[in-house]
Amino acid sequence: QRQGVGRALMYAIFDFVSNVDHGGIWCAARLRAVEFYEKFDFATAGEPYIERGLGAHVRMERLGTGHSSIF
Q1: pTM confidence score
Q2: Closest residue by Cα to residue 48 from 63, 32, 36, 69
Q3: What is the 3-state secondary structure (H, E, C) of the chain?
Q4: Most buried among 18, 21, 53, 64, using CB within 10 Å?
């Protein structure tokens, strides 16, 4: 953590998504990571839930600029 790996990965994902022209992306984020994803314009979508064996998560979505959607 705090080494820039997550940030680099997010930018790589955004580059990929923009190249394939999708409308947005989503992830199942651990509750303790919500602030990290919010820094990249993700928003929570729905209520937190328990992911078996992994703890509390919430779906997060980020709209893109393409014409279709991968939600």
Answers
A1: 0.77
A2: 32
A3: CCCCHHHHHHHHHHHHHHHCCECEEEEEEEHHHHHHHHCCCCEECCCCEEECCCEEEEEEEEECCCCECCC
A4: 64
